[in-house]
């Protein structure tokens, strides 16, 4: 006794195939001439030949050598950009990623931190980078010589205050009045 598996007939497969399609593939299928497909093999061959050009070319691992942290680019954006590129490279070894990431760094402080305790895996490096970025973010709004350095929008300090319209004629008069008042105050000093 032999066990044979039954395959569904080509008609059923061809009719159920469009239900699995979305977007561009569904549009392609709807443009096929009616009664132009005889069996599922013909349909699958047409499908493959039409969409084979849309496959992306494999990017070699040496592509990582082209990824460098740009002047003025924050560590956070470099990590984000590097990770995006990692997704494009097929079968990238962890050591290759680790080495090329470090080679592309320009953040001297982070390089020093990596040199003190070098990570063995890329995931360890990314965790270390995340901690470093969090520390950078926490230290950013500090007082330096009486001025506050912050990532916030300078307009945040003006919230709740009335804004002057530069194009409005009454504001020109007000600014002149302020200048006159300032001059008068300077003129009446006792010395």
Structure description:
The protein is mainly α. Among the domains are: 10-54, no CATH class; 61-147, Non-ribosomal Peptide Synthetase Peptidyl Carrier Protein, Chain A (Orthogonal Bundle). 51% of the residues lie in helices and 2% in strands. It has eight helices and two strands, in the order αααααααββα. It has helices spanning 10-16, 23-30, 40-51, 75-88, 94-104, 108-116, 122-139, 169-187; strands at 143-144, 147-148. Strands 1-2 form a two-stranded antiparallel ribbon. Strand 1 and strand 2 (147-148) form a beta hairpin. The longest helix has 19 residues, at 169-187. It is flat, with a radius of gyration of 32 Å. The protein starts with 9 loop residues before the first helix and ends with a helix.
Overall morphology:
flat
Strand order of the largest sheet: 1-2
Helix content: 40-55%
Uncertain stretches of 5 or more adjacent residues: 185-189
**CATH class placement of the domain at 61-147:** Mainly Alpha
From the alpha-carbon coordinates, what is the Rg to the nearest angstrom?
32 Å
CATH topology of the domain at 61-147: Non-ribosomal Peptide Synthetase Peptidyl Carrier Protein, Chain A
Number of strands: 2
**Mean pLDDT level:** 75
Structural class: mainly alpha
Proportion in β-strands: under 5%
Named CATH architecture of the domain at 61-147 = Orthogonal Bundle
Continuous helix count: 8
Give the end-to-end Cα distance, rounded to a whole number of Å: 120 Å
**Largest sheet descriptor:** 2 strands, antiparallel
SSE string, helix = H, strand = E?
HHHHHHHEEH
């Amino acid at each position: 006794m032999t066990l044979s598996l039954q395959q569904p007939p080509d008609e059923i497969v061809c009719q159920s195939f469009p239900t699995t399609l979305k977007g561009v593939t569904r549009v392609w299928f709807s443009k096929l001439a009616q009664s132009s497909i005889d069996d599922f093999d013909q349909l699958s061959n047409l499908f493959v030949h039409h969409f084979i050009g849309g496959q992306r070319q494999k990017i070699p691992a040496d592509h990582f050598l082209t990824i460098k942290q740009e002047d003025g680019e924050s560590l956070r954006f470099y990590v984000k950009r590097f990770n995006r590129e990692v997704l494009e490279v097929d079968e990238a070894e962890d050591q290759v990623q680790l080495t090329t990431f470090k080679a592309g760094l320009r953040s001297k402080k982070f390089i020093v931190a990596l040199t003190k305790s070098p990570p063995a895996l890329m995931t360890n490096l990314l965790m270390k980078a995340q901690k470093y970025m969090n520390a950078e973010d926490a230290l950013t709004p500090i007082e330096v010589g009486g001025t506050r350095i912050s990532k916030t929008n300078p307009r945040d300090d003006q919230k709740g205050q009335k804004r002057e319209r530069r194009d409005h004629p009454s504001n020109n008069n007000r600014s002149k009045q302020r200048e006159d008042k300032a001059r008068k105050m300077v003129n009446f000093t006792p010395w």
